[in-house]
Amino acid sequence: MAAKKTKAATKLILKVQTGTDKKGAPTYGQRMVQHMNPALSDEDFLAIGKGIGGLQSHTVHDVMRQDAAALTEE
Question: pTM of this prediction?
Fold first, then answer.
């Protein structure tokens, strides 16, 4: 029985520092861009994430890629 991957969905997630807590530790939020092309390379994702991160006021801590797909039997 072979498995087949279908319905791939890819998101670009930016983890940004939104402030600090009462103890001075950084607090984080996420900015998400859905429906990204799953064929993009990791280098392309990083470049796009840096570009989008430069357009907003918070400091980008991480650029993340999230891929999801459904698995079915062939």
Answer: 0.83
